[in-house]
Design a protein that fits this description.
79% of the residues lie in helices and 0% in strands. The chain is an all-alpha fold. The longest helix has 46 residues.
């Protein structure tokens, strides 16, 4: 880990990292969650989520051009707010949302893998397989940057190609009739709030583009290639998500998707391709989830290591040998394993969505207030990004308060602990510094 170097990631490698995280979690883990809130309109939710993510990505691209860094979002927050509580807390929110994403993908890996056997998706084997994936991803990450870049590129090609085959096959089975895939009427108990709330999950599905900013210090010609990688990754994933959502919509009813929401793609492959289709879809899911976890752990370890080196978060090595980055890998994987073992997919996804949207609002506001002139940002675009985030986050929390108050409460408690803990830590660190200097 301590051998990461400048110019060690190509443009294609950066794109594979972004798509690796997005496709690893997005379509396999979240399609059913989106359908549960948006009903027949869930394919549109992925398209609208992409548009909102594009508005948010604008600020990241402008900042990556000005401040390319291995710290990525943490460095952007530092430039916007200085080395204080907001920077540290916002960075930790992003880091936790990424760790939560790893747990989401890990459980998805377990759920899809069990579709090959006559075992319930509620089996204890789901978290066990998820934990095993996290351990393997940890071992891959300590092997170094080149291994990660090569494996991510190969896996990205395999899973994008596989999902394209799945989508085209599903639409072909429906006679390539878009009319059968797109909704013609609305059924079920859905309203404007639930439709907007569904966008929180689709935005979460696209947030993998931020992984690219966390690797800015390693990407060749980062001032240009970070922005290019973000735009290309978003375009690829939007196309893949939309095609897959249409294919699933053409082969399953909304009640069927919701009933199999944790493994909806595997279920959708059965009417068209039978048992062979199931095996094929599960194989692609396994490749996608493995690459997603590897890419995410890579990015968040860099980010948290930078925060530690900047003395923005506390660190104890607990007698562990090796570099700081290896220590951060251990902490990240331990937290992800805990979440994987004790939380289901819906709650993990909800935690991740709230954390990410909150962090994005903090970052966009910092750009609007303090950096808009320095990075020559278009103010209306930044205001639009903040407005979209606030509307989606508000609708999502409103829905969750009525359906799963526990996840809202635990998210609020964790956020409070992050901000209060960071404030105490930074004040205590400054006090210790002043004592040493006096």
């Amino acid at each position: 880990m301590n051998n990461y170097k400048k110019n060690s990631l190509t443009l294609s490698g950066a794109i594979s990292l972004g798509t690796g995280v997005m496709i690893g979690a997005g379509i396999f883990a979240l399609l059913g969650q989106v359908a549960e809130l948006a009903g027949e309109f869930f394919p549109y939710a992925f398209l609208v989520g992409a548009i909102i993510s594009g508005f948010s990505a604008y600020a990241y691209i402008k900042m990556s051009n000005a401040y390319p860094s291995a710290g990525g979002i943490a460095m952007y927050l530092k430039n916007a707010y200085g080395p204080g509580t907001i920077t540290a807390s916002g960075s930790l929110l992003m880091a936790f949302s990424m760790v939560i994403g790893e747990s989401l993908v890990a459980r998805t890996f377990g759920t899809y893998t069990l579709q090959l056997f006559d075992i319930s998706e509620k089996s204890v084997w789901v978290p066990i397989l998820g934990v095993l994936l996290l351990i393997v991803a940890f071992l891959v990450n300590i092997s170094g940057n080149k291994v990660i870049g090569r494996s991510s590129l190969v896996m990205a090609i395999i899973k994008i190609g596989g999902l394209a085959i799945f989508a085209i096959g599903g639409l072909w089975a429906a006679g390539f009739s878009i009319d059968e895939a797109l909704p013609t009427n609305v059924s079920g108990n859905y309203n404007a709030t639930s439709y907007i709330a569904a966008l929180a999950f689709t935005i979460l599905a696209y947030k993998g583009f931020t992984t690219i900013t966390n690797s800015g210090g390693e990407i060749i010609n980062p001032n240009k290639n970070v922005g290019r990688a973000i735009m290309i990754s978003l375009f690829i994933c939007t196309l893949v998500y939309l095609l897959v959502a249409l294919a699933v919509s053409a082969n399953l009813t909304i009640p069927e998707i919701i009933a199999a929401k944790d493994f909806s793609l595997a279920e959708a492959s059965k009417p068209t391709f039978g048992q062979y289709g199931l095996w094929f879809t599960v194989a692609i899911a396994i490749v996608a989830t493995i690459s997603g976890v590897i890419a995410s752990i890579f990015a968040v370890s860099r980010m948290t290591a930078m925060l530690t080196e900047a003395q923005l978060i506390p660190h104890k090595h607990f007698g562990m040998p090796g570099s700081l980055q290896k220590h951060m890998l251990v902490y990240i994987v331990v937290i992800a394993i805990t979440l994987t073992a004790f939380f289901d997919l819906s709650r993990i996804a909800s935690l991740g969505a709230i954390f990410y949207l909150t962090m994005d609002i903090i970052l966009q506001w910092g750009v609007l207030k303090n950096l808009r002139k320095e990075i020559n940002a278009n103010v209306p675009i930044i205001i639009a990004a903040i407005s979209f985030d606030l509307i989606v986050l508000g609708a999502f929390i409103w829905i969750k308060v009525s359906s799963d108050l526990f996840v809202v409460l635990i998210t609020g408690v964790i956020m409070l602990l992050i901000f209060a803990g960071e404030k105490w830590f930074l004040q205590n660190s400054q006090t210790q510094k002043n004592i040493k200097q006096s």
